[in-house]
Design goal:
CATH architecture of the largest domain: Orthogonal Bundle
Shape: globular
Number of domains: 2
Strand order of the largest sheet: 1-2
CATH class of the largest domain: Mainly Alpha
Distance between the termini: 49 Å
Number of strands: 4
Number of helices: 12
Structural class: mainly alpha
Largest sheet: 2 strands, antiparallel
Order of helices and strands: EEHHEEHHHHHHHHHH
């Protein structure tokens, strides 16, 4: 028989007032802890944006925005200095474009196999092996591109120089394959089994079901995976810093040496540039532009997912 003032739950257990009070305090503490954890990411993002904008102001006080976005030469460390960021943007997009051209077909093919063809036991073995690629340090990828991929490419393109965008882009594509494959597979598995059974009932083959039923139904997830992988490629640093070179050149030729935005930031961040100079502020101007580019890609991915998500 429970004491007076106790609360009897649906399961028959009695809860004393003291225990209820401790439970409420515990719930309040957990709620505040979860809110604090959520605020950490928000405040970190706000802090990064404020720092980039505040430091970039010092750059744009000395360099016009028009010159920065339309100039075709980037030589801030030479005399006379030029501050046209287009060579860095073109190098970034060139390597990222090569990477997504590699990762998209391979990643989608892997996702189709794992979700539609592979048995459950095979899937449990192959998927972790595929995701091991995501755990390899990027500096290892960079030296792999420089010492293994580039010599192989030189047999096909004898005029290929040591530092080039092609080898960096190819290895970067290998690096982001797990991201495309894993996220796309998750989107395909989420497609209801009833759609597959209906297609099989109409006489479709397994490949037709995968490409004409499952993939269209999972389009929003697949596109989101590709955009996330592309954002990862745009922000990659060590592979392009090691294998792509450090020549800011406005070109679409993957056989030439280029410089990406992240590689330039690494070059200037070595400590040789005096603090407070316009050359020093270029780090933050380029970083702010890179942040805006990746943010716009992520916003587009979120809009696309909301716009074309299939609800079952």
């Amino acid at each position: 028989m429970p004491h007076r003032g106790t609360l009897k739950t649906a399961t028959g257990f009695a809860i004393s007032p003291g225990r209820r009070s401790r439970s409420r305090l515990g719930e309040a503490f957990i709620h505040k802890l979860l809110v604090a954890c959520a605020l950490v990411s928000i405040l970190t993002t706000v802090g990064i944006v404020v720092m980039l904008v505040a430091q970039s102001v010092g750059f744009f006080r000395q360099v016009s925005i028009l010159e920065f976005f339309t100039g075709t030469k980037w030589t801030p460390l030479f005399a006379p200095p030029n501050f046209g960021v287009l060579p860095l943007v073109s190098g970034t997009l060139l390597t990222a474009g090569i990477a997504i051209l590699v990762a998209l077909p391979v990643g989608l093919a892997s996702a189709i196999y794992l979700s539609e063809y592979a048995r459950e036991g095979v899937r449990r073995v192959l998927k972790p092996f595929l995701e091991i690629l995501a755990g390899i340090p990027t500096v290892v990828y960079g030296y792999f591109a420089l010492t293994f991929i580039t010599p192989l490419l030189q047999k096909v393109f004898p005029s290929l120089i040591i530092f080039n965008a092609l080898s960096a882009g190819l290895v970067m594509g290998i690096m982001i394959i797990p991201m495309v494959s894993s996220l796309s597979e998750d989107a395909m598995i989420a497609v209801p089994r009833s759609l597959r059974n209906a297609a099989y009932g109409l006489g479709a083959t397994r490949f037709e079901v995968a490409t004409r039923v499952v993939m269209p139904a999972a389009t929003s997830g697949i596109v989101a995976a590709c955009i996330l992988a592309l954002s990862r490629a745009v922000g990659e640093t060590m592979i392009v810093a090691i294998a792509a070179g450090s020549t800011p050149r406005l070109t679409l030729n993957p056989l030439e040496s280029i410089q990406t935005m992240t590689a330039y930031i690494v070059q200037i961040s070595l400590g040789e540039t005096p603090h407070g100079t316009v050359e020093y502020y270029t780090i933050f101007a380029v970083g702010l532009l890179l942040f805006i580019m990746t943010m716009l890609m992520n916003l587009f991915g979120q809009w696309f997912v909301r716009r074309y998500r299939e609800k079952y």
